[in-house]
Amino acid sequence: MGADLSTARHVGFPGHDGRSWWRDAVVYEIYPRSFADADGNGIGDLAGITGRLQHVADLGADAVWLTPFQSSPQADHGYDVSDYCDVDPLFGTLDDATALLGRAHELGLRVLIDLVANHCSDQHPLFRAALAAGPGSSQRARFHFRPGRGLDGSEPPNDWPSVFGGPAWTRITEPDGSPGEWYLHLYAPQQPDWNWRDPRTAELFEGVLRFWFDRGVDGLRIDVAHGFHKAAGLPDLGHLLAGYRPMQLRTIVHAADQEDTHDVFRAWRRIADSYDPPRVLVGEVNLPAERQWRYTRPDELHQAFAFDLVAAAWDAPTWMRSIHGLLAGRDAGGAPPTWVVENHDVVRTPTRYGAGPRGAARARAALLAVLFLPGAAYLYQGQELGLPEVDVPEQWRQDPAYARSGRSRDGARVPLPWTADPGRSHGFSSAAVEPWLPMPPDWGRYSVGSQRQDPGSMLTLTRHALHLRRRSLRAGAVLADDRVEVSCDDAVLTAHYPSGLLLVMNMGDSPVALPIGDVLLASAGIEDGVLAPDAAVWMTTAA
Known about the structure:
This protein has helices at 32-35, 46-59, 94-106, 125-133, 199-214, 261-273, 289-292, 308-311, 316-333, 349-352, 356-372, 400-405, 448-451, 458-474, and strands at 26-30, 63-66, 70-71, 83-87, 110-116, 145-146, 169-173, 179-184, 219-223, 280-283, 303-304, 338-339, 376-380, 485-489, 492-496, 501-506, 512-513, 518-522, 530-531, 535-540. By secondary structure, it is α/β, with parallel strands linked by helices.
């Protein structure tokens, strides 16, 4: 099992006592399948991550978040868990996880791991037992089994759709071979939802928390955190179906944001706080800011992901409103915002913001914006390389959402290019094998090796920004300042701290004159004090 890392010493976090590092941290998201492949099978693994963590430390990040690597049939690439306390052989072993934690802590990186507690795999032993036990059994009470509607029970128990598209119910065949009950799955049919009104569910997951916290994991990113409890009786949506959108759980209103869920997080917070140093809970709470803050009250989650900027168009007033909303949530709930524009579920920013040179320029500017704002920032692997979205050939697409809704997330999950080598995997794999998703022919030009010595590259910009953030914004407690002023003038967004630090982001089509001051960092060249369209700058002005 390896050494016990639960009391490992953490280093490299100036300005923090080790207990509140998360408040203004930069967290780097790692999608294990696509980060680095050490065993040469074309799929990333934990040993590959361990071998490449120096890259993350060199960027200046404070922590990594790993998407699921626990045991799973991989119907949704790990978000269908069959054993919460083991590592899937595809990614390695528990010893590999221990080695990864040790290396991360040596480098001064905290480690957050994904916890998928809304649903499990249909291969989880408890779900298999529920199928075998039959209607009315205590085993089925762990999930949401219901008889169908209609004379022969052939219609789903209610009208809820799946987030991935199609119905949220699947009918089973009973042990005697007859058509049977239906079970709820808000995502793919291979992902049955746990029944959080059964007290055994809470007991199960409290044990899972302690298992990983005891092994030295610094915190959890909680998948679908606002969806654990469903409305009592599972009522029809009826006319509320008109607001449904695929890939948005919040639009299935009876399946999200139920009051009982807050009791879960209060219990988890007590567990997290019982460790020294306390472990951190970060929730995927995809709700409007005016509802999201309720999950980060002092006795619940430490942070919640902010999705507002992920969904925001390239428009200064829209960004300003989103930022104001998240800052208002901070004031109400006490938790700092999390700023993010990319993750493994959305189109990459160089493509989302317009593709081509203009999209790339906007992605550089957006990076500076999220790293400047007060609170924590989350970067997705490859964002520091300016990777665009890949149009993955249809025959290679593996995302279960694609078959049900026509929306594929595979384009943001293509493996990272580490070298410019024109071989099959650009340094991603230790062997000459095809990666699990194909890399475009020109992928090498985005590689770490190609960008490392280029002063104008996205990688260089990211490194400069993260180190400047730590030296100038964190060390001076600027990011904890409650008085940041965010405004826009037509197409120009500005954020101004009382210390005199200023962000200017030109989201329009015309150059704009900068105020008098010293430029600290810019996403594009500045000539005669003028900021080009689709560019951002950090600068100092008179306080």
